[in-house]
Amino acid sequence: xxxxxxxxxxxxxxxxxxxxxxxxxxxxxxxxxxxxxxxxxxxxxxxxxxxxxxxxxxxxxxxxxxxxxxxxxxxxxxxxxxxxxxxxxxxxxxxxxxxxxxxxxxxxxxxxxxxxxxxxxxxxxxxxxxxxxxxxxxxxxxxxxxxxxxxxxxxxxxxxxxxxxxxxxxxxxxxxxxxxxxxxxxxxxxxxxxxxxxx
Length: 199
What we know:
It is a single chain. The chain has 199 residues and is mostly helical. It is built from 6 helices and no strands. Helix 1 (10-36) packs antiparallel against helix 2. It is globular, with a radius of gyration of 18 Å. The two termini are 14 Å apart.
């Protein structure tokens, strides 16, 4: 999703891309949770199909936007977003496999390898994210840093509130391995809002 409405595509197209990305992330998490908890197969398949369809539609719109612009900076940003998306997908799939198969193997090497897959994917995502910020021009870097601050603050507040309910009411603890993916999601929304407001 572009930082601001693209002159050739318009703010409407940018909002559609953001909506598709949100649907993809939410359906991916739902499908993963249903799979790990061995819930009804039909609902798991439905969530997976929604996830796949929204991802394909989002990637198609991203490629279309990249081809429509001749701005090298915007095309580079599109490539960064594509890499981040694929790495987040690898992280979630690796996490699902690790949580599912760790209980089925006692071999230390295999257990380390299962945990290493999502860990490396997340480290790769952080590296690409930092490279994207570093390669931005001054104005866009400032915009992205503001989005980072908003996203980090929102995630910290929500995690703290969840912790209060978990501690005082006995609710389940928030899974720490979802903090960074959650931040990435909120960051994308914050970036869209800030970019739209300043466009």
